[in-house]
Design brief:
mainly alpha, single chain, 1% strand, 76% helix, 336 residues
């Protein structure tokens, strides 16, 4: 082994230790927040703990899928501002297929995922082939997907089945059973395992980190960066499609022209979980911890009757702190 290879291995091991330490600290923060809101809410506000935990889970499902998808884009050093509107566009077109075109529910859900994956492919082509800055490319896609969803639905709200409807299995399969058992958690856990495996155990994940660390060096080493970067955004879109399904299962109605702002919640969860906005560093485990921190904060602050404007302010402060920590970590790494 050469001295350069040895130094590279030591650097990678140092990064792994730092990421693991940050994940432990983030996990500890999640546990502290959860215990605080459960104890304070039940004692001072009389909140039902099972109901509180259910609210946390249901607010984490669709944001969790968005966050898992956008993690791939951020690790490459990019960003995706369109995940929220892509999710809504897929859910709207799937709703049109079910309510207006008379498609079976399962086919409409497949269409929802296909539409979102198609937008992911569009993002990937613009970023990797046309060399558009990810911020600009995905901002354009955000507007296109928002407009397309409104056009196809003719600005009409789309309604998905409830448990009392003939296709009530939709809610039971993707959200919870009639007895209240949270079936959605199995979907979230299953796709988390898939995302974790893709990121950590496949060539795709290895190249994703390589592109984020130094795209030009990855290209010179023989990696087809255009292909793999495109695939990162395709995977991102695929997860947005499932986020649309879980959004529809959670809220039943999907309103045209919405979705803006949801991308910020997903990106905030990714950043809080330790994924670097400069690329090359991140983990799917950290992303899910960050998502649940956001879910606990939203549900907990709402449960203890904190006004909406203060909820937004506090979450914004936490996101800024997470970014500052990321910057400090990058500065230490550069000095080393």
């Amino acid at each position: 082994m050469t001295s350069r290879e040895g130094a590279g291995m030591e650097k990678q091991q140092g990064k792994s230790r730092k990421v693991s330490l940050q994940q432990l600290l983030t996990l500890a923060s999640l546990v502290v927040l959860l215990i605080f809101f459960m104890v304070y809410g039940s004692v001072a506000k009389g909140i039902s703990i099972p109901s509180f935990l259910t609210n946390i889970l249901e607010s984490a499902y669709y944001i969790g899928f968005l966050a898992m998808g956008v993690t791939f884009a951020i690790i490459t050093g990019g960003i995706d501002l369109s995940v929220g509107t892509i999710m809504m566009c897929g859910a709207l077109i799937g709703g049109v297929a079910f309510n207006v075109w008379g498609w079976p529910m399962i086919t409409a859900l497949i269409l929802c995922v296909a539409v979102a994956t198609g937008f992911g492919l569009l993002n990937g082509i613009m970023v990797s082939r046309l060399k558009l800055v990810p911020f600009i490319a995905t901002m354009g896609t955000m507007m296109i997907s928002q407009g397309l969803g409104s056009i196809v639905s003719q600005t009409q709200t789309m309604r998905y089945p409830t448990m009392a409807d003939p296709d009530g299995w939709f809610k039971e399969v993707f959200l919870r059973t009639q007895s209240g058992f949270p079936t959605g958690i199995f979907w979230l856990a299953g796709f988390f395992v898939i995302a974790w495996f893709l990121l950590n155990k496949t060539r795709f994940g290895k190249y994703t980190f390589a592109i984020g660390s130094n795209e030009e060096a990855a290209r010179l080493s023989g990696i087809d960066t255009k292909k793999w970067l495109t695939l990162d955004y395709v995977v991102d879109g695929f997860f947005c499609g499932f986020a649309g399904i879980f959004y529809a299962a959670t809220f039943t109605t999907v309103i045209p022209g919405t979705g803006n702002g949801l991308e910020l919640q997903a990106i905030a969860g990714v950043v809080i979980g330790g994924t670097s906005l400069s690329g090359g560093v991140g983990s799917m485990t950290g992303t899910m911890i960050g998502v649940f921190i956001m879910a606990v904060l939203r549900s907990g602050l709402m449960a203890i009757s904190v006004p909406q404007q203060w909820q937004t302010l506090l979450i914004g402060v936490i996101v800024i702190l997470a970014v500052l920590i990321d910057i400090a970590r990058q500065n230490r790494a550069n000095k080393a």
